[in-house]
Amino acid sequence: MPDEHHFPGAFHNRPAAGQPERHEPLDDAAPRGEDTQTPAVIGPLGRRLVALADAMRRHGVVVGTSDVVDAGHVAGALGLENRERLREGLAAALVRRGEQRGVFDDLFDIFFPAALGRRTAAGDLGADDLLAQLPEFDAENADAAELRERAKALTELLARALAENDEQALETLAGVVVDEFGRLRRAGDEGFSANQAIDQFQPNLAVARATELLREHDEYLRRLRAEQEADALEGSGSSPGLADEGVGTSEGGGGAGSGGQAAAPLEGWQPDPFVQRFDRDEIRTRVAGFRRRIETESRRRNAEIRGSASQATYAVTTPIERRDFSQTYAIDAAQMRRVVEPLARKLAARMAAKRRRASHGRIDIRKTLRASMSTGGVPIAPVYDHRTPNRSELVILADMSSSVSGFSRFTILLMQAMQAQFARVRVFGFVNTVDELTETVRSVGADGDLIEALRGNTRMQRGHRNSDYGMTFVDFVAHHLDAVTPRATLLVLGDARTNSTNPRYDALRTIVDEARHAFWLNPEAESQWGTGDSVATKYAEIIDMHECRTITDLRDFVTKAL
Questions:
Q1: Which tens digits make up the pLDDT trace of 414-439?
Q2: Quick check: is 249 in a domain?
Q3: Are strands 488-493 and 393-399 parallel, antiparallel or unpaired?
Q4: How many domains does the chain have?
Q5: Which domain holds residue 225?
């Protein structure tokens, strides 16, 4: 029996196989059309909305009591007939920032599931009945060879659905894949795994076939258009206008001539490489969407078995903005750009506004009193001593060892994207010795992968591959201290773990004394500073050190400090 947080089926797109469709309204839900100024929902739906809000709070999304009341009014106004419409309505009431939408969508799918049980009836695919073409299959008793054959058959159906962008077919195929390939077969572990389903089914194999189907469809449309043009010209016969263009000039042969003219361009026709590349990218995007459908379906099935509360806690993807930098190493360059670019624009706008405000300077008493003569000696409009706004230089000294390279990579790319806000940006990387990376970062640009560009760099390490902050600071003082000018802001990135080597506090103090401002961003929790081989607490006595574990922490630091 489902727990009280499991929705009783009002949003089913299709009933479970062999079950009648149900349409009973929730007992205490406000009927549509009634006054929504009173509390809109109580009872099961109200409890579900409260549970959704509680789960969002546990994932760091601020949801107030008034937001939950608004969500109740939304549910009462929109009704329960259209699940996607209700999703958008509740998102408008409960979500305040764009990066929170992913958490909301995952939780919405758990607390307001699209169906109960299996969704593998052939009728679910609409008029095509694609699944009806497949034989009955017993996934629980199938061997490896039978699973491979089943995967091939489903891959063909997936390719057709991807080529046609059939949302309903993709939704049902995701249910089939989860049911047949994602079921956990370990004793005492009942449930479904999206990763197992994706690994065994491998939806990426459908990309080539789907692209081929798109190309065949395009060629078919071209030939059909050519035939229609030929038929139209044949029906019109020869005319002075067409004769002047050399079409249909033979006696009684206007149709044949025009038909030859229309069909000729298709002979030897080859698809445009740009169009082919665009089609492949579009299919890959649809495959990524299909993978998300598999993940959603797995969460829904697991919520029925393990309970909505458990899935809401452990099965929701943490948004990248709140993910520890230690977990961002595997993020690809494209995903990194999608995060860096909008964040850089926002922070740059804030820094520019802050600099404009600072340019007013102090009140010029003499000019203010002189200007007040026109208002009877009352200084209504103060006159400020305007200062020429100065853009500071930025010097980044980043630990590029494997333990913190994800954090350093993101911070460097963010500062590089904001370089217009600084007079100059210089980047230095180190493991146990220093190498200037300014030109490397500039050559990589916004579209490259900094980690890949630095993969063959051996100038940041000498003798071993472990971080040595003491040797690094000594090397920086000896060879790069001129980079830190009185106008420079120094930004040190690292976890301050010295691997039990000499920390050389004197060298760090020498560098800090040369800078106008100096900050250290540490990706470790402050509670871990000073434990083990960490000397963060000692370094913090020399330089202003900040805990910076997530993108949100980094954004707050840039807004306040730079």
A1: 887 888 788 889 999 999 899 999 98
A2: no
A3: parallel
A4: 3
A5: 135-230+272-319
